Amino acid sequence: MKTDTRKPWNWLLFPFSSIKSGAEGIYAASVGHGVFEIDGDSNWSKLDRGLPASASIYRLQLQHDLLHACTSEGLFEWADNHWEDDGLPLACYQYRKIGGTCFAATEDGMWHRYGARWERLAYQGKQVYDFLNLPQFVIVGHETGIALYDKFMDEWSEFGLSRRVTSLSVYRGHLIGVSELGELFIGDKRGGFDRVAFGGKHIFTVASKGGEVYACTDQGLYKLVWAANRFMLLSVQLGFAVTDVDIQGDQLHVATLFHGIQSVQL
């Protein structure tokens, strides 16, 4: 794999928190410095019109060519060259649109919207950081662990981990969660979770891309693999702290803490 080391004219070394690749270019967010678009010629432009100056960007989501920013000031959609307030007056950590329904993880539970009005769905008074929508289950990562909603049984199950679970993924039928302390929790398929540390690495997030699950860590980007009857991390790109990753064609685009936006050839 080869890393693209080209630096645009206004090379930015902000601590980037999220990255998304779209047809028009790459979108990258920094917690304290807003959202940027990078076009195919490596030109940067800041997307700030309509976004509160005080907003910290936690995550970007790009679905159906619509860019959303999950921020400390609520949820915003980029449309007609400006940010529009999506009407969710809470700090938002994750957003997805599934079918005709919008879902958001917020500082005050899970919310959903079908039509024009947001309504709370679950977990009033609890911070929810991430969620997954699977054919049978909805998985929620919140301030004390992981919750699982069985759509067929209409029942919630709680897995108290005494940790804030901020990122979720699924690999080989195992539910994967990342804690605020950078630990990896792996479901054992028996109703429990194993806590796994990989050589002192702090894991920021796990991301499912192109059929693989990537772990973004303070020591680089890794691929989660199953070998010799255990989970392992296979290095993809080392040398800088990676906070998020997205895939575009034959390239991985990564957001880093201290080295801007990097591209890795697959």
Return Rg in Å: 18 Å
Mean pLDDT across every amino acid position: 91
How are the strands ordered across the major sheet? 1-28-27-26
Estimated share of beta-strand residues: over 45%
Question: Your description of this structure?
Answer:
With 266 residues, this protein is mainly beta. It contains no helices and 28 strands. The protein is 0% helix and 61% strand. Strands 1-28-27-26 form a four-stranded antiparallel sheet, with no helix packed on it. It has a four-stranded antiparallel sheet with strand order 2-3-4-5, with no helix packed on it. Strand 24 and strand 25 form a beta hairpin. The N and C termini lie close together (6 Å). Mean pLDDT is 91; it is low at 1-10.
The gist of it:
The protein has strands at 3-4, 16-21, 26-30, 34-38, 44-47, 57-63, 66-71, 74-79, 82-85, 92-98, 101-106, 109-113, 118-122, 128-133, 137-142, 145-150, 155-160, 165-171, 174-179, 184-187, 193-196, 203-209, 212-217, 220-227, 230-238, 242-248, 251-256, 261-265. By secondary structure, it is mainly β. The chain is globular, with a radius of gyration of 18 Å.
